[in-house]
Design a protein that fits this description.
The chain is of the alpha/beta class and 306 residues long. Helices cover 30% and strands 20% of the residues. Bound molecules: flavin mononucleotide (FMN).
Length: 306
């Protein structure tokens, strides 16, 4: 049977299907359940320096092709987070997502995450709907470079940079983030929903982030563009609900994928379903390991189109 193990930076993972940040209730319980039910690793909800309540409802709106959300980065703050995970049994399989408004906040968070026994962070440089953090930080290449240099310079953490698709030049941003160990592509797209009878916006914050099947082609384009230019390790995320979706991301250069909005259509067995489909695909197509298909449609000499 073909091997679906993979590697992101120095992190070797049994399988490439990860839980995306902010999905499920994201307590330590749902993270542990994801790991027990077949996720290769799991990313936590984004954690900031202090507790945030987030926006008032409605914070989520389902549309035909996915979800709109503006949760507002509600989170318990780093100290409560550390306390909750004090006795967590599988910290090596947890990627802690952190967000901040400046270098100092990212630095405080990263050091605390490392002290608490974790060895990987995903930098949320891309939340599209909260002022002063997320993509407001992630749109500034110099700031992105500084944040990553600070964390790499003062901790031994593996750093995954989650970038925003809401920029004109994603490749330039990726290059600014090149000291990261991996890129995570993509966060949600800035979007608005309208209720025609109440004539209200679907989300209390008006602008939110669009996720789910409708954004998959945008995420694929992001992975393709960045892999072509950097050949770095990429975690693909955006609209993945089936193993076939996952294969598309691997062919364009992703070495692992995250599932998020898929959880409104599927339950925890999604991890093993995607893993099985992947392994069967590799077997039936004559590949012995996942690595054999990573980026094959992008590497030099690959067929470039119809
Ligand atoms: C309700 C909700 C909350 C989210 N919260 C976060 C978050 O806290 N941090 C983050 O980096 N991404 C967050 N995301 C973005 C997802 O991690 C993911 O990048 C995005 O939804 C695209 O993937 P998908 O189409 O598989 O959902 C959130 C998405 C949703 C739908």
């Amino acid at each position: 049977m073909a091997s679906i193990s993979t590697r992101i930076g120095t992190f070797s993972i049994e399988n490439p299907v990860l839980l995306a940040s902010g999905i499920l209730d994201e307590t330590s319980g749902s993270i542990l359940r994801s790991l027990r039910e077949g996720a290769g690793a799991a990313v936590t909800k984004s954690i900031g320096v202090t507790e945030r309540k987030g926006y008032s409802t409605p914070v989520i709106s389902e549309i035909k092709t996915g979800l709109l959300n503006a949760v507002g980065l509600s989170n318990p703050g780093i100290e409560n987070f550390v306390e909750e995970y004090k006795n967590f049994p599988e910290k090596r399989k947890v990627v802690v997502s952190i967000f901040g408004g400046n270098v100092e906040e990212f630095s405080i968070l990263a050091r605390r995450v490392e002290q608490a026994g974790f060895d990987k962070v995903e930098l949320n440089l891309s939340c599209p709907h909260v002022k002063g953090v997320g993509s407001e930080v992630g749109q500034d290449p110099e700031l992105v470079e500084e944040i990553i240099a600070e964390i790499k310079g003062h901790t031994s953490l593996q750093v995954w940079a989650k970038l925003s698709p809401n920029v004109t030049d994603l490749v330039a941003l990726a290059k600014a983030a090149q000291k990261a160990d991996a890129y995570v592509l993509i966060n949600t797209l800035r979007a608005i929903g309208v209720e025609i009878y109440s004539r209200k916006f679907s989300l209390s914050n008006v602008v939110g982030g669009y996720s789910g099947p409708g954004i998959k082609p945008v995420a694929l384009r992001a992975v393709y563009d960045v892999y072509k230019e950097t050949q770095k390790d990429i975690v693909g995320v955006g609209g993945i609900t089936t193993w076939e979706d996952a294969v598309e991301f691997f062919l364009l250069g992703a070495r692992a994928i995250e599932v998020g909005t898929a959880f409104i259509y599927e339950d925890y067995p999604i991890y093993s379903k995607i893993n099985k489909g992947l392994s069967d695909y590799l077997d039936s197509e004559g590949f012995s390991r996942l690595d054999d298909i990573v980026g094959v449609m992008v590497k030099d000499g690959a067929f470039k189109g119809h």
